[in-house]
Every structure is written in C-alpha cells, then in structure tokens.
Amino acid sequence: MSIASEILEELWNTELRYKGVRVNLFGIPRFSKYPQRSIRTTMDRLKKKGIIEKELAGIVLSKYGKEYVKRKYDSLKQFENPGNLSKDRTLLVMFDIPTEKKSHREWLRWHLKKFNYVMVQKSAWVGPYPLPKEFNQYLKRIKLDKCIKTFKLDKPYK
C-alpha cells in the first residue's frame, strides 16, 4: 500500500486526532515509519489535486476527496470463492475491457483466478459454472457487463 493510500484511508475513517493528525490509542501518529519529507511531499501532492484541504481542525478530505476515496473502495470490492461451484470447467468467459479501465481488467483477472478459472488467453478464461450472483450484479453496477461475454460449454475443458 502506498503512502498516499494510507493517508487517504486514515482521513476517511478519522476518529482520534491530536493536532489535526490521526493517532492510535496511545497518541502515537500512524505514519511514524515514513520520513517526514515523504509525508509532506505526499500531502502537498494530494492538496494540489484537491483531494485534501486544511481546516481549523486539521487536514480533512475535501468533497472531491470523499468521492475519490469512495470510488477507490468501490472499485476494489472483494468477493470470496463460493465453495459450491462445480469442479468441471464448463464456462468460458471472454472480455474486452478498454485500456482506460486497466485496473478493472486486472481486478477481473484476479477474481477469475480466485474462482478457480484457468487462462486460455489473456482475455479468455475457462472455469466452473456459474459465476457468483453477487459478482455478476457488481459487474453490472460498475458497467463491465457489456465488456464480458460468457458461454456454457457442452464438454468440460481439460
């Protein structure tokens, strides 16, 4: 996890503060493992992008920053491998995801591996039928359903 991700995560769930910085129960700042210069540089970059802003209470997420973090959390939603999938690989999943959504493409490949799918080509995978229902609903929500085609195979893939 990058320092920027950790800073945004801390500002997203800020509860205990001391001088505007989130601290643990003992009052120790969370970012003590990073050099001060790295923290300052990262904070300046986040401020320049409009993700964070300074207030009297300290540093907080801006309105844009809250939307940005929410999008990041949503795009990284994780699904567990349902144990009730068949062992036969009878579903072919093919996808063509635009380069603007490269992170979504990597996310999809990671989940297909997690669901015991095997790569035939980079954008063609074979695995157990069916894909989890919640997973398909999430694909529709993030508008990837139009980029993905599934085919039921007559015989299991070996």
From TrEMBL:
Read off the Gene3D superfamilies from this record: Winged helix-like DNA-binding domain superfamily/Winged helix DNA-binding domain
List the GO biological process terms: maintenance of CRISPR repeat elements
Q: Which InterPro entries match?
A: CRISPR_associated_Cas2, PaaX-like_central, WH-like_DNA-bd_sf, WH_DNA-bd_sf
Write the record's keywords in alphabetical order, separated by commas. Answer: Antiviral defense, Endonuclease, Hydrolase, Magnesium, Metal-binding, Nuclease
Q: Which residues form the signal peptide?
A: none
Q: Does the keyword Metal-binding apply?
A: yes
| Coiled-coil ranges (or none) | none
Q: Which GO terms describe its molecular function?
A: RNA endonuclease activity
- Domain of life, per UniProt, equals Bacteria
Q: Which residues form the Transcriptional repressor PaaX-like central Cas2-like domain?
A: 92-153
- Name of the featured protein: Transcriptional repressor PaaX-like central Cas2-like domain-containing protein
Q: Which organism is it from?
A: Candidatus Nomurabacteria bacterium GW2011_GWE1_35_16
